[in-house]
Design goal:
This protein is α+β, with helices and mostly antiparallel strands. About 20% of the residues lie in helices and about 45% in strands. It folds into two domains: about 110 residues, Sandwich (Immunoglobulin-like); about 160 residues, C8orf32 fold.
Length: about 280
């Protein structure tokens, strides 16, 4: 069990005052099996109104607006979260049930691809070869590993909205590219899969009391009888170093901040994440 204190700040600065802005922040984790939120706060400066709700995918959203002229926007999120290690193997229903009408109807949204998760034919072929002869859960992990083996982790070559096919063509990308490619590959063999965003403590040893520079991270969950988290970038199951923030079909459903504003382009954006393991 890990107890992680996370401090996440996003500071926007504009070239000239912005007259008004309307935003949604997905920066607050929820308690769920394996993850318990002990304390949480999200501070927005400035703002004139805010409202909290759950979106369609179950993510905690803070909607807020700023109606006074402002030249900067600062969001500070601080959370204390206990995360338990995953000790049970993934559930494993037979292929005929996974491909049956009941599952395909109930989980249709996690079987259909959009622009960022549609994969080229060679990735489909790779996924089918990796899955061949295995039960669904073992096939899902093999597919994720096969995709990861074909991609080199290189920051800065793509954006969060880049199509999976673009990262695959370059054979380079970052965590959201690997998640998008894994989603498309899993769905191509009929395994429902969803995108997960959150935080990752980068130090596997997790020394208690030491604050480290953390990461906003992306991984996947597949369904083979129940949802099971797997981190394709690091080739490990999601466990006590992963804190879930949001889920959806792709990154487009889970951005930490989405909004519109009236004014000049953003001049500067500084994002910082620090994580301290307290237990």
């Amino acid at each position: 069990m890990s107890r992680l204190r996370i401090l996440h700040s996003s500071a926007f600065r504009y070239a000239q005052p912005v007259q008004a802005s309307y935003n949604e922040a997905r920066m607050t984790p929820l308690s769920e099996p394996g993850q318990t939120v002990l304390a949480s706060r999200l501070d927005v400066q400035p703002h004139t109104w805010s409202h909290d709700f759950r979106d369609y995918w179950g993510t905690h959203v803070t909607a807020f607006e700023v109606l006074a002229p402002h030249q900067g926007l600062l969001l500070t999120a601080e959370h204390l979260v206990e995360v338990a290690p995953r000790t049970t193997p993934p559930a494993d229903v037979p292929w005929h049930r996974l491909h049956g009408a009941e599952v395909r109807d109930r989980l249709a949204e996690f079987l259909a691809d959009g622009p960022t998760t549609t994969v080229p034919d060679d990735v489909v072929a790779l996924a089918r070869a990796a899955a061949d002869g295995s039960a669904p859960a073992a096939a899902a992990e093999a597919v994720c590993r096969a995709v990861r083996d074909g991609l080199e982790y290189v920051p800065g070559v793509t954006t969060v909205h880049s199509p999976a096919a673009e990262a695959w063509a370059k054979r380079t990308g970052v965590c959201q590219d690997m998640a998008h490619l894994a989603l498309g590959a899993l769905r191509s063999v009929g395994i429902p899969a969803r995108y997960v965003s959150g935080y990752l403590h980068p130090d596997a040893s997790g020394e208690v009391g030491r604050t480290v520079t953390g990461e906003s991270h992306a991984w996947v969950e597949w369904w083979t009888g129940e949802w099971y988290g797997f981190d394709p970038t690091n080739g490990v199951p999601a466990g006590e170093h992963h804190v879930v923030l949001a889920r959806g079909r792709s990154y487009d459903d889970v951005p930490p901040l989405r909004g519109i504003y009236a004014g000049p382009p953003t001049e500067d954006l500084v994002v910082q994440v620090s994580i301290t393991r307290e237990a």
